[in-house]
Amino acid sequence: MKYLNHKVLDPTTPGKVGVLITNLGSPDAAERGALRRYLKQFLSDPRVVEVPRLLWSLILNGIILNVRPGRSAAAYRSVWTDDGSPLMVHTRAQAEGLRALLQERYGEEVIVEFAMRYGSPAIDAVVEGMLERGVNRLLVMPLYPQYSAATSGSTFDALAAHFCQRRDMPALRFRRDYHDHEDYIGALALKIQQYQAEHGVPDKLVFSYHGVPQRYCDNGDPYYAQCQHTTQLVVDVLDLPDDSYMTCFQSRFGREPWLQPYLDETLKSLPGEGVKSVQVICPGFSADCLETLEEVAVENRDYFLEAGGESFGYIPCLNADAEHLSALAQLAGEDLPGWVVGKFE
Ligand SMILES: C=CC1=C(C)c2cc3[nH]c(cc4nc(cc5[nH]c(cc1n2)c(C)c5CCC(=O)O)C(CCC(=O)O)=C4C)c(C)c3C=C
Ligand SMILES: [Fe+2]
Ligand SMILES: [Fe+2]
I want to staple 187 with a disulfide (CB 3.0 to 4.6 A). Which of 4, 167, 179, 323 is the partner? Predict the structure, then answer.
């Protein structure tokens, strides 16, 4: 093993504290080649697709990477902005907002950056840049409120893989999840209240989370339980009647059963049960992305309306809302004791 060479930090200087927020990542462009590279990296991650490697390699390279990139590129084109993918735009804004809040509170010794698990800016390159700037204590916060091995677990894998190549490493803290954090729950509840103050109260409020194969949760992934808990906590804050909301799972991929109920099937059946208006919120996504803006707000809207639904509302993600930034700053602050002293503590 040949380790990466890097400069030695002066042990007499205090060093800096790094806060790294991460998300899933997007292709570099909404075109076939970029989608192929992105999907190859993403879908080759054994945390994401838990299928025997040889079999999966044949399916991935033989079928999926020939069919999916074209289709997904078209979907990405429908949400792409001049500044890149929505996920990238929002994550960049979250990092800037969080940097302002944390530097106001703790001073310039705190450095805040963002990185993506797949595509760019890659976790290893961003971490390396932070260490170059003198970071010797690093807090990593994946912006997945609910833990899953496929997301937060995989982010830890990427960090560990990088540190495996280094001689020196910083002190490391890792935010596992924040599915029940008071400020996150409060920000979601406020978002719903504000949306409904403008658009009214629907027959049904649908909490939609990205799915994972049911098997992962049967084998011990806490994701399903954490999603249900998040919904319950928001419902408690808003004091919603039992029949006025439900929890669904979206973005199914492949043939085996995923977490249920499925969002698409639910929206196709609700009008037949007398539910004519719905609003959908996606609490598991900290930022709007392809899966919310295209899959939920366009594709699933159509399913509902085609099945006889009359009104469909999509409640945006928390993105870089002030309440979200302040929740993230609070979360970071709770993981920083001993490393920094806040001006307001
Ligand atoms: C194949 C299995 C997949 C698992 C398991 C999975 C879990 C998972 N994903 C997110 C968050 C996001 N996923 C996004 C896109 C996306 N997800 C999959 C597949 C799995 N996800 C694919 C193939 C794609 C790419 C788009 C497509 O081709 O359909 C995104 C959006 C990224 C963007 O650029 O906008 C997010 C965010 C979570 C939270 C999760 C498990 C809990
Ligand atoms: Fe996904
Ligand atoms: Fe999707």
Answer: 323
DSSP 3-state of 332: helix
Whether the predicted model's global pTM rises above the 0.90 cut: yes
User: Distances from the Cα of 306 to the Cαs of 55, 80, 95, 264, 268, in angstroms?
Assistant: 38, 26, 39, 12, 8
Report the pLDDT value the prediction gives residue 76, as an integer from 0 to 100.
98
| Ligand closest to CA 117 | 1
Question: Do the interacting molecules here have an ipTM over 0.90?
Answer: yes
> Quick one: which atom of ligand 1 is closest to the CA of 23?
37
Q: How many CB atoms lie within 10 A of CB 85?
A: 25
Residues in Cβ contact with 36 at an 8 Å cutoff, skipping those fewer than 6 apart: 65, 69
Interhelix angle for 65-77 vs 32-43, to 10°? 120
Q: Whose CA is nearest to atom 39 of ligand 1?
A: 210
| DSSP per-residue letters across 210-248 | E--BHHHHHTT-THHHHHHHHHHHHHHHHT--GGGEEEE
Q: Which CATH architecture has domain 182-315?
A: 3-Layer(aba) Sandwich (3.40)
What is the second-level CATH architecture of the domain 16-178+323-334?
A: 3-Layer(aba) Sandwich (3.40)
Testing ligand 1's pocket by substitution, the residue of 32, 290, 296 carrying the most ligand atoms inside 8 A of its CB is 290
